[in-house]
Amino acid sequence: MMWTNGTQARAVHPSADAFALLEMSDETRDDMLAHSSPVQLERGQALPSLAGFLSDGVVGVAGAASDGRPLVCALFHTGDLIDLRRRARRPQGEARALTAVELIAFDVEAIDAVIGAHQDLAALWIEQIRDQFATLRDHCADLSCKTPIERLASALLELRRWPENVVAGAAKAQGRAVTLRLPILRNDLAGYIGVKPETVSRVFRKLEEEKLIEIQRRNVICLKDIAAIRRIANGGRPRAPTR
Amino acid sequence: MMWTNGTQARAVHPSADAFALLEMSDETRDDMLAHSSPVQLERGQALPSLAGFLSDGVVGVAGAASDGRPLVCALFHTGDLIDLRRRARRPQGEARALTAVELIAFDVEAIDAVIGAHQDLAALWIEQIRDQFATLRDHCADLSCKTPIERLASALLELRRWPENVVAGAAKAQGRAVTLRLPILRNDLAGYIGVKPETVSRVFRKLEEEKLIEIQRRNVICLKDIAAIRRIANGGRPRAPTR
DNA sequence: CGGAACATTGATTGTGGTCAACTGCTGTGG
DNA sequence: CCACAGCAGTTGACCACAATCAATGTTCCG
C-alpha cells in the first residue's frame, strides 16, 4: 500500500483541494483553517478528532459490540464534513480510516465559535449533517428488511454517487453501464451492509452470473444494467415464500 | 384510541409546552413560531412538512421498499426537532405519526432564514441533528450485526432515554428496576429493530422467562435487571457457533 | 521466490422469516 | 346482555438461507 509513512510530509494529492469546493467566503475558510490541522492517515488508523473535513479517502464509523464483531455503521467520503460529537454520556463508536486518508482535523473546542461567527458556515454545516442523516436513514432502511443481494445492490448505487469512485472513460461509451472503483475492502463493505464477507462474495458472483455486473478486478466492477440493479436495490429480491 | 377527531380544536395537552424547554431567546422563539403552524395528527397520518418540532408523540420515518415490507428507519420523540430535508433528487422515505402527535410544522421555505438570523437557533439545530445522527449510527450498528434479542434489549434501553416513556413511582422503589411504557405498537417496534412482529413476541417471552423483564400489560413492561439487559444489548448474545 | 493479506469456495447447521391458526381485547349495534 | 367484527398480539410448524468453519485461491508486496 502506498503512503505507509503516515506523518511524513509528501506531495499534495490532486484531490486535496476538495476543501476549496465548499461554498463559503474566504474569510470563513481562513477562520476554519486557523483552528484546524491537516493530518494523513493510513488504513486502520483512528481519527484524531471528532470533527474534521475529509479531503480525501473513506472513513468508517465502527459501533461498539462487546465481542469483536466487525461493523461499519456509517461511511464518509471525500468532501464530507465530519462531526461525530454528541451530548450522550459514553462516546461509543470510533471513526477509522478505511483507505489512505487526508483529513483537516478541527479543534473541537474552537470550531463551534467559528460556526457561530459565520452564518454561511452554519448553513453549510447543517446541510451536510442533514444529508448524512438522510443517507444513514436510507441505509437503515436497507439493513432493516432487505436481503443481502438487495443490500449490496443498494450499496453499489450509493457508492456511485461519489465521482471519485466512478472510472471515467468507459462510462459514457457503454450507454447505461458504469465502471466503479470500490474504495473499500470486502471486509468493510460486508460490515457496512451487515453481512459476512463470504456472503458479499457469493452475492457478487450471483450478480455476475446474471450479467448485471462484471468483476474486472478485485475492486473494479462494471455495473452493466443499472436499471435492473436499481430494481433489486428497491426491494426486487425478497426472500422466497415458504410454500 | 383517543383524539380521533384530528383537526378539531381541543384542550392543550400538558406536554405541549415542550417547545418552551428548547434553550433559545424569546425573540428567536417568536420568530420561529411566526413561520410555523401547529398541527395534530393521529396514528398513521403523514407529516405535512419536512421540518418541525415534535411537541408530543412519536414519529417514525419509513423507507421505501417497492414491495410493502414494513420498516421504521428512524424514530423521533417528544422534544425533537425534525429536519428531513435533503439535497438528493428523489425525496424517498416518509414520516408518519406512530402515536397521536402534536407537531409544530415549520414553513420549510422560511425556516432557513430564521435559522440564519439567530445564532442560538443555528447552534441548537446543529446539536439536535448531530445527536439524532449519532443515535441513528448506534441503531445502524445494532442492525448490522446483532441478534434479535440484542436488538430488542438495545431498543428498550433507547426508549428509556425519554422520560415520557418511563412510568414514575415504581421506578425508584424497586432499586434498579424501571417500568417502561412502550409508546409504539409491536409492529412498529419490530420494523424499527428490523425483525418481524412474531420474533419480537418470541424475544419478549424469552426475556420474561429469564426474569429480566416483566410484561405487565401489552405496552407496559418492567425492566427488572438493567445491567443484564445492557450486557445483552452490547453484544452478549451472539449466535451459537456451528460446531 | 516466499509470505502475508485479502478473497473465494464448499459443506453444514442454527435460526429467523413465513404462513396459518388462535387468543385477547375493544367498541359497536341489535 | 350477548354477538360480532376488527385489530393487535401470540403461538406453532416448517424450511430457505445466511452464518459458521475450514480449506483453497488470488493478489500484492518485499
Describe this entry's structure for a reader.
Two copies of one chain form a homodimer. Chain A is α+β, with helices and mostly antiparallel strands. Chain A has helices at residues 26-34, 108-117, 119-145, 148-160, 170-173, 186-193, 197-209, 226-236, and strands spanning 36-41, 51-56, 59-62, 74-76, 81-83, 94-97, 101-106, 166-167, 178-181, 213-217, 220-223. Chain A is 39% helix and 19% strand. Chain A has a four-stranded antiparallel β-sheet. Chain A has a four-stranded antiparallel β-sheet with strand order 8-9-11-10. In chain A, a hairpin with a 2-residue loop joins strand 10 and strand 11 (220-223). Chain A starts with 25 loop residues before the first helix and ends in a 7-residue tail after the last helix. Residues 1-14 of chain A have low confidence and may be disordered. Chains A and B meet through helix 2, helix 3 and helix 8 of A and helix 2, helix 3 and helix 8 of B. Chain A binds a DNA duplex (30 and 30 nucleotides) through residues 1, 147-148, 185-187, 195-202, 204-205, 217-218, 239-243.
